[in-house]
Amino acid sequence: MDKLKLRAGGSGEPPFLLLHGLGATGAVWDRLGELLRRRLLVPDLPGHGGSAPLPEYSFEALAAEVAEGLDEAGPVVVAGHSLGGVVALELANGRYGLDVAGVLALGVKVEWSVEELAKAAAMAARPPRVFETRADAEVAYLKVAGLTGLAPADPAGVTEADGWRLSLDQAAFGVGAPDLPRLLAGARCPVVLAAGADDPMSRPEQLRALAADAVTLPGLGHNAHVEDPAALLTLLERLSPSED
């Protein structure tokens, strides 16, 4: 397993760094990547897909591992979904040796109840479930990633180990709740917050309370980047016109 599995390709500067959400892999960006005329850097976050797990999960540790795994200093434009959106905001503070020119944070969960945090901690402590077949494990992968009916399962999302299980490190569920006001205040680049109008985890009114110019994507849910990749193009172009 790679310390950080990174897909890289395309041409056009500055590149886009695309960060997936909890439980998914970089493959969720494939359709958007086909639309972007830009060099792409698409990792599996630590503890996901083909990337090695971390000893302990925090937004800071995830950001540090991503920055180290890129092997370049930027500038880059970062688009992140859900957990990846928080990591993108963390990278934007300039403390990781990466020049971030802009951030699109999509579908970031703003409000966390005590019950939700307790449930996440319990999931983090739970041993991985083992399935008899790869197909059963892929069904579970799609459910955990919120991709059921939206995308095929990434082969890297499951692994064989005395049966089949998710590649996801269960401990990643324990990353906790982000301090979004602090992250936004610390960003040293333009930031766009966005969410699907039908996203139950990232309500548009919650985002607007953080940033008056937060964008609502009509008719889309939590995985807006998978449901309608083209809907993100204008937002990304706003952050970084191509230098080609």
UniProtKB/TrEMBL annotation:
InterPro entries: AB_hydrolase_1 (IPR000073), AB_hydrolase_fold (IPR029058), AB_hydrolase_sf (IPR050266). Residues 16-232 form the AB hydrolase-1 domain. It holds the Pfam family Abhydrolase_6. One of its GO terms (molecular function) is catalytic activity. This is Pimeloyl-ACP methyl ester carboxylesterase. It comes from Amycolatopsis saalfeldensis.
